[in-house]
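Task card 7
Instruction: Convert sequence to structure tokens.
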Amino acid sequence: MAERLPRDLLALIGAILLGVFLVQMDSTMVNIALESFRRDFGADLGTVQWVSAAYLLAMAAVIPVAGWAIDRFGARSAWLVSLGLFTLGSLLCGLAWSAGSLIAMRVVQGAGGGMLMPLFQTILARRAAGQQFGRVMALVGAPMLLGPVLGPVLGGVLVDGPGWRWIFLVNLPICALAAWAAVRVMPVERIERPARLDVLGLALLSPALVGIVWALSRAGTDGGFGPATLLVLAVGVALLGWFVVHALRTAGPVVDLRLFRSRDFAASAVVMLLGMMALLGTILLIPLYYQQVHGFTPLHAGLLMAPHGIGSALSLIVAGRLADRFGARPVALTGSLLLLGVTLALTRLSAGTGQWEIAALIALGGAGFGGVIVGAQSGVFSGLDRAAMPHATTAVRVFQQVGGSFGVAVLAVALQRNASGAGSLDALGDAFGTTFWWAAGAAALTLVPILLMRSKARKVAETAAPAEPALNPS
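Output:
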């Protein structure tokens, strides 16, 4: 009979889950509110999509800071500062007066939320040793899987009822409770060594990603690359190139690009990026389709998005067991083919497509995405020594968020262009179907790196203390 987990560890898990669950819920609730943002602020979809894209980019930028923050300031201080940033961002988002102000406030919120996810993983890994860690992650996993299911529904309830501002303001009392719980159960750590942060790497990577995503979305909106757009794109590419040179020459870069020497890591990281782009086809476009084409309320649209979360949750549970038994590549390949089939089916979306047909498709799409992510995560650490595992975890999480932000930008701009001449609901429905070709293209491209993965992952070399495993995407 397994030994019961200590009460102080269970209290720590409860305190941490309050913060992490908020971050997961927030992402899915916002997707339901995009149509409300567009309508209330009188903005086009190309602008409003930055409410999601800026949040994801901010999360990507701060993920590498989490480990440094714990070593430099201690787990409790790092957690409380991150939670405070997320709380401040939530308050400011709820008070936003324009699309631009909301986007700016989402950057603050994303910076706090992006830190909370890797901090939670690291804190639990350090507190729960050996076999306890597996039991802890299993205990944590159940409520975390509810986020994608409950988020759209709760978002619909709030947007339909008191208004979209409450999808942010509802965070405030829960954040206060989470902060109180953290102060009660997280011990103050003694800092024994100062940690080094790759400040130059952060200063290069963050503006590079923002510049490239902004330029691509602007070009799609304007129908081409104007002088200003070309300049921003050139600066973004130059900064990214500088970062690559810096990362390959520096010890302890913010994202260790030397990991790409491993074929399995390189393939898995690219799968993460493309998989997130394909996923956005469902969780971004379908809520908009329900509201714009069928005139459904946000609550109705949120309820109809629940099958996607259920499919993802069930797949994450089953795919993990299958990956242990059959290897990473078969699981990722099966998930990719399923995701590709669903996105191809959704290219035939029209105003007459039935809601139950869509519900079945997005449930299968969620299941396919779960297989892709679990397979990719299983392959990430293949052949790496244990000393490299924390760097690999950081890198793939950054790739997930960057893939998500690119997906949001590309799909939103493509939809705006396809729908610009739509003079009827039939034409608007067809525009959504056409836009899904971008998601299908991303899903098809995942097949290339998946086929480069090894069927059976190589064992991790025993060279250092074990590191935390990668988390499921938020």
